[in-house]
C-alpha cells in the first residue's frame, strides 16, 4: 500500500482525548492531527518522537492531517487503524496471505447477523468471513492484542464462532504494524476475557493468522506471517 500523497514529517507534542494529537511540523508550524487509534497506544507513544502525517483535503474534516506512524527505538510503527483493512483486502484479492488465496469474490464490510466483518471472500467451494485487527503493542519480542479492554473485540470473536458453526470459514487476521517483534499472542494481562475468548474461538474452529507489516514513510506492505502463541 503506497501512500497517495507525500507524508509530512513532524514531532509528537502530545496525544489527548484519544483521537487528537498535537504535532510540530518540520517547518515549525504546530498542527492538530486526527488519531484513528482508540486504544491506549501503549509501547508506541513517546513525546518528542518523529511522526509522519498524511494531509487531508476534505473541507468537512476539522483536522487537516491524519497521524500515520511514529518512530519508536529506531523503527516505524503504523498507528492508523484504517490501513490494516486496506492491506488485508488487497492481499486477499491478490492471494498473497498464506492460506487466504484463490477467492473469486472479495468484498469489504459485509454484514453477518448483527456484526459487520472487514472482509468477505468466497469461491466455488467455500465462503469466508475475515475480521481484521491492528496490532501495535509490544512486550519483549511479542506483538500483543489488545492494548486496552475490548468488549467489541470479544463480540467479533463470538460472531466468528457462529460463522464457523454455520459451516463457513472464519478467520481472525491480526496485522502487526511494527518490525521489532517475532511472535503474536493475546494480551492476557490487559484483557484476560479477550484472551480466553480467543482460545475458545480457536477451539471452535476459528483460524488465527498474524501478518507482520513493514512500515515506511513511502508505503506499508505485508512482509511475513508470524507464529501465534495462545
Automatic annotation (TrEMBL):
Molecular function GO labels: DNA binding
All residue ranges annotated as the Sugar fermentation stimulation protein C-terminal domain in the record: 84-218
Pfam families membership: SfsA (PF03749), SfsA_N (PF17746)
Name this protein carries in UniProt: Sugar fermentation stimulation protein homolog
Listed Gene3D superfamilies: 2.40.50.580, 3.40.1350.60
Taxonomy, superkingdom: Bacteria
Residues covered by the SfsA N-terminal OB domain: 13-79
UniProt record similarity statement: Belongs to the SfsA family.
HAMAP family reported for this sequence: SfsA
Amino acid at each position: 500500500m503506497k501512500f497517495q500523497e507525500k507524508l509530512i514529517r513532524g514531532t509528537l507534542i502530545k496525544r489527548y482525548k484519544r483521537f487528537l494529537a498535537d504535532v510540530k511540523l518540520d517547518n515549525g508550524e504546530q498542527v492538530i492531527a486526527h488519531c484513528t487509534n482508540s486504544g491506549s497506544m501503549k509501547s508506541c507513544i513517546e513525546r518528542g518522537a518523529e511522526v509522519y502525517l498524511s494531509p487531508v483535503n476534505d473541507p468537512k474534516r476539522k483536522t487537516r492531517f491524519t497521524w500515520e506512524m511514529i518512530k519508536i527505538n529506531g523503527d516505524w510503527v503504523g498507528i492508523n487503524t484504517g490501513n490494516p483493512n486496506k492491506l488485508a483486502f488487497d492481499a486477499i484479492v491478490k492471494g498473497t496471505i498464506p492460506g487466504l488465496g484463490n477467492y473469486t469474490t472479495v468484498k469489504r464490510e459485509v454484514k453477518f447477523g448483527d456484526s459487520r466483518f472487514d472482509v468477505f471472500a468466497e469461491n466455488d467451494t467455500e465462503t469466508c468471513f475475515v475480521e481484521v485487527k491492528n496490532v501495535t503493542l509490544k512486550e519483549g519480542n511479542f506483538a500483543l492484542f489488545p492494548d486496552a479492554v475490548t468488549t467489541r473485540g470479544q463480540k467479533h470473536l463470538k460472531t466468528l464462532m457462529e460463522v464457523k458453526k454455520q459451516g463457513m470459514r472464519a478467520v481472525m487476521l491480526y496485522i502487526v504494524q511494527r518490525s521489532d517483534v517475532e511472535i503474536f499472542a493475546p494480551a492476557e494481562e490487559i484483557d484476560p476475557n479477550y484472551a480466553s475468548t480467543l482460545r475458545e474461538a480457536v477451539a471452535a474452529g476459528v483460524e488465527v493468522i498474524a501478518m507482520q507489516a513493514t512500515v515506511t514513510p513511502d508505503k506499508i506492505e505485508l512482509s511475513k506471517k508470524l507464529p501465534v502463541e495462545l
